[in-house]
Amino acid sequence: MGRLAGAASACSCLSVGSSGDGTNIAELVRKLWFWMVCADPALARGAVEDMLPSPSPALALRAVPSAGDDSDARSLDLARQREGTADKLWQGQAEWRVISTAQAGAWCPPSPTGFVIRDTLTARMHPRRACAALVAALEVMGVDVVNDGGNKGQVVHATGLAGLQELNDAYGKTVGNGVKGQAALLRFDAGEVPQLFADAIHIVPHADGTLAIGSTSEREYDDPISTDGALDDVIDRATRALPLLHGAEVMERWAGVRPRSKSRAPMLGAHPLHQGQFIANGGFKIGFGMAPKIAEVMAELMLEGRGAIPDDFQPGASL
To answer: Residue 126 and residue 94: Cα distance in Å, rounded?
Structure first.
């Protein structure tokens, strides 16, 4: 990030668009992170620390799956083999370990095998607070964040589903689509504990005394921002997996659409339709987590003309 500091002085306006069409929050975060990596890291860090609650544990627990037969042993063997793979790939910065449910304690997903995977690569974050922190950092740096900016200067289209539909129409085929997700926020203060993955549901405690659970994964839907019985099922499954949540107040229910490229990888680089402009789209379920790195490589491409984007992430991979 440091080598890009000060580059934002050439740009003073960021258009984030509207979320009324179910645009996934990862698209907004990607735009905000783009500007953050172009600006003064010290100022950004101060704004973020002022807005975010206390640091959250970088930790997640998930059950070692069971098939109810001899494959349990194979599942455990595979999970333990991945300990070595993680050690190699993560280079000591995080770890993947198989531990017993007894070692994990009360805050633990149910596991028929009696074992769970504990990884320290995963971290907790409150998405809305993170967005507010990034906006505050940008304002400190003199960048205006607006809903609709002019189409001038360096332009990157991080437009989510609408951008993928534009490509679908232009090429007469499916380049990408949207997958709806419904989630809920509960009033439940779990304290400084890891997020859990249980029964295909993410259970994410926040430091402000709330807890998020989600989500559905819907290819077919009528309304991108409505919630329905599918979310009721998610809440029920989360409560069955973690009885501690029984009776917790559901504070909020919401839905949005995750932009999914044909290749399932983010689409990064020169825009296929808009000459001289760029695209950052299709992040799907990894868009939020990869937003900082996506922002960095896109900033290098747009501001310095240096391309460090893998072939699988280029727009052509989905065309």
So the answer is: 21
Catalogue the E-assigned strands of 122-272. Answer: 144-146, 156-157, 176-187, 195-198, 201-205, 210-214, 249-261, 267-270
Q: Does 103 map to a domain?
A: yes
Residues 214 and 202: beta-carbon distance below 8 Å: yes
CA 316, CA 319: separation in Å to the nearest integer?
Answer: 5
In a domain, 247, yes or no: no
Q: Residue 68 is part of which domain span?
A: 60-119
Total of domains in the chain: 1
CA atoms within 13 Å, Cβ hemisphere of 6: 2
> Identity (one letter) of the amino acid at 289?
G
Alpha helices in 196-256 (DSSP H): 229-241
Q: pTM here?
A: 0.80
Residues 31-75: tens digit of each pLDDT: 454 544 444 444 444 444 444 444 445 568 888 876 665 667 888
pLDDT at 261 over 70: yes
Cα angle at 54 between 48 and 55, to 5 degrees? 85
Whether 179 is in a domain gets the answer no
> Looking at the domain assignment, is residue 286 inside a domain?
no
